[in-house]
Amino acid sequence: MIFDQVGNTSIITQEKATVIELVKKLHALYPKFKNNNIIVALTSLDSITKAEIVEFLDLSKTHKAAKHSLVIVSNKINLDIIPDDLVVVPTLQEAHDIIEMEDMERDLGF
Prior knowledge:
Blueprint: E1 2-6, E2 9-13, H1 19-33, E3 37-41, H2 50-54, H3 57-65, E4 70-73, E5 88-89, H4 92-107
Parallel strand pairs: 2-3, 3-4, 4-5
Antiparallel strand pairs: 1-2
């Protein structure tokens, strides 16, 4: 895992661990990131299944309840099968754009 910080956004890039291992590590390290928006970049994976992406559901719900964004970056999954509670985009730039829009919505009280 590679951790980068850009403003109030933590970017976590998955390298070698499986998605299940990554989610477990994120849960363990969550107090470190709980006050930041989070981008999880899964671009190094050859493929990702719906079962793997759903592993992020609890973490996403917890983070949204705390008024922060969690965005997953992967272009290796059919976006039509993603649960509505998860935000998955194909590029890092789109992840930053989503976070910017969600920050504006929170500022406006939505």
